[in-house]
Amino acid sequence: MRITILGSGTSCGVPQIGCTCEVCTSTDPKDKRLRCSALVEVDGANILIDCGPDFRQQMLGIDFKPLDAVLITHEHYDHVGGLDDLRPYSVFGGVSVYAEKFCMDHLMERIPYCFTPPEKRYPGVPALDLMEIEPHKPLVVKGVTIMPIRVMHAKLPIVGFRIGNFAYITDMKTIPDSELPMLEGVEYLIVNGLRHKEHPSHQTIEEAIAFARQLGVKEAWLIHMSHHIRRHQQEEASLPAGIHLAYDGEVINF
Prior knowledge:
alpha/beta, seven-stranded mixed sheet, about 15% helix
């Protein structure tokens, strides 16, 4: 499995517009964080997780080939704002976008022109095929089994995804105890850690580390980070063994 971190930042991105803090003014490329997204390549399947407003920029340096699935964790703009930029991928045919019903409804309200029947579709708009998912009901993409898992973004139910011994979870604050068996055996984890200070809808870095320890994973990478942490080099050096600060463009193989 090969995972490319397309974006590791929170909703405002880093640097944040107008901010002059030491992280936002850093010249270290690892302190530049686009909105969260990842590309998973496994057993011949090319799977995108979330498609935020930085999608076009993120994909310019990636080999151009079909996306077999776009998995959406939830409908917030920083996770779906780039769906219109899937236009070029329509040359390969319709792009399958997997989301929960609640999320699908929001997408159809916001960008209805992307989901019109082919005979009524305006020339040039992306050809997107919405596919409904539910937690605990696996979906199969090119022979790869993907399990949606329920997590809570404050009071908003959203989903994370498990693929084999790997799980991707973002924007989580809590997870129901009933979901933990769905993550048994996960060895590699990408999970959100916003900052050190408590936040009502996102895990802190400390909470993310505790969650990784609870699952007993071999390695974990933190994503969805704001500028309210130290610079990458300092923050990475303070993390316990097996916990890493993800960065944009990072390629993870296991």
